[in-house]
Design brief:
CATH class of the largest domain: Alpha Beta
GO biological process, one term: cell adhesion involved in single-species biofilm formation
Shape: elongated
Strand order of the largest sheet: 2-1-6-5-4-3
Distance between the termini: 88 Å
Number of helices: 11
GO cellular component, one term: plasma membrane
EC number: 2.7.7.65
Catalytic activity: 2 GTP = 3',3'-c-di-GMP + 2 diphosphate
CATH architecture of the largest domain: 2-Layer Sandwich
Radius of gyration: 29 Å
CATH superfamily of the largest domain: Reverse transcriptase/Diguanylate cyclase domain
Number of domains: 2
InterPro entries: Diguanylate_Cyclase, GGDEF_dom, Nucleotide_cyclase, PAS, PAS-assoc_C, PAS-like_dom_sf, Rev_trsase/Diguanyl_cyclase
Length: about 325
């Protein structure tokens, strides 16, 4: 009996200890019922232990719709769900018997969206049967937002919010290799704001910045496939990379962009070709092969852009030599 009393005391002590841990923690039994929901978990989620103890309703502390938490996945052995449910996760076996994952959680009760780092580990009896799973949570929201901000600075243009030149170069290189491997067309648009120097001289640099933002916004509305990339190429020049797009498709997008800016009717009294801001666009398309490289596609689009400028501006021109056959 002393041994049994000692075991009971040890269990009670472990429960009290877990209740007062500063790390948000909850425990599910082998039936996925909550048997511990500590005070730190209450503070994090706004959900009192009394609401979830003895139930499988712990999901509503983190999500607006029913779904499995990491502890549930361990109890059920359904690790195939990890990919669809979590932004990042370890592979089973990488952390002994446990799993680590990261995810955005909506936290409905406290009306917050938090990025949580999650650890779940099983507890087995002497015969290897699952007794419970312990899930611990860590609020990594500030770190995640800082990481996202740094990533945005690295890949986005600070003025327009479009992809920057570095992102453009990387995207073009990657899509070139993919198109070469698949034998599919790759198209490129180079977009230039007509008489932009005169616009800046007439209206000032703040208005010039507003003009560039308007062009970027228009491009964002017209370039909506997730595979495409609209970027600020430099100064008043923009670019659009369009995988799996032939010349006809590129022309349709280019014309939509040109017309969108024309229809915005941004006054440009100093323009030598129109009473408003307009765009000149060069389009080129090619099925990549061993005899060409991404620079050839850029050059082809640049030649087409030059033709558009010297043919009256406010138009789209094509480099036929680079068009995919």
């Amino acid at each position: 009996m002393p041994a049994a009393r000692n075991a009971e005391f040890a269990h009670a002590f472990a429960v009290r200890l877990m209740q007062h841990l500063v790390v948000p923690t909850f425990v599910l039994d082998a039936e996925r019922k909550v048997i511990i929901w500590n005070k730190a978990c209450e503070r994090l989620t706004g959900v009192a232990a009394a609401e979830v103890l003895g139930t499988s309703d712990h999901w509503h502390a983190f999500y607006e719709e029913p779904r499995h938490c990491l502890a549930d996945i361990l109890v059920l052995g359904s690790t195939e769900e990890l990919e669809s449910l979590y932004a990042a996760h370890s592979e089973p076996g990488e952390t002994a018997h446990g799993i680590r994952a990261e995810n955005w959680c909506v936290m409905p009760r406290v009306h917050k969206r938090l990025y949580l780092a999650i650890d779940a580990g099983p507890i087995f009896d002497e015969d290897g049967a699952l007794l419970a799973v312990v899930e611990t949570l860590r609020d990594n929201t500030e770190q995640k937002l800082a990481q996202m901000a740094l990533h945005s600075l690295a890949v986005k243009d600070g003025l327009t919010g479009l992809a920057n030149r570095r992102s453009f170069d990387e995207k073009l290189e990657a899509e070139w290799l993919h198109a070469q491997r698949e034998g599919t067309p790759l198209s490129l648009l180079l977009v230039d704001v007509d008489h932009f120097k005169l616009y800046n001289d007439t209206y000032g640099h703040q208005k010039g910045d507003s003009c560039l933002k308007a062009v970027a916004e228009a491009m964002g509305h017209q370039v909506f496939r997730p595979t495409d990339l609209a970027a600020r190429y430099g100064g008043e020049e923009f670019a659009v990379v369009m995988p799996s797009t032939d010349l006809d498709g590129a022309l349709r997008v280019a014309e939509r962009i040109r017309q969108s800016i024309f229809d915005r009717n941004i006054a440009h009294s100093a323009s030598q070709t129109a009473d408003r801001v307009t765009l000149s666009i060069g389009a080129a398309s090619i099925i990549p092969d061993e005899e060409h490289d991404p620079g050839d596609l850029v050059n082809a689009a640049d030649v087409a852009l030059y033709r558009a400028k010297h043919s009256g501006r406010n138009r789209v021109m094509v480099n036929e030599m680079a068009a995919a056959e």
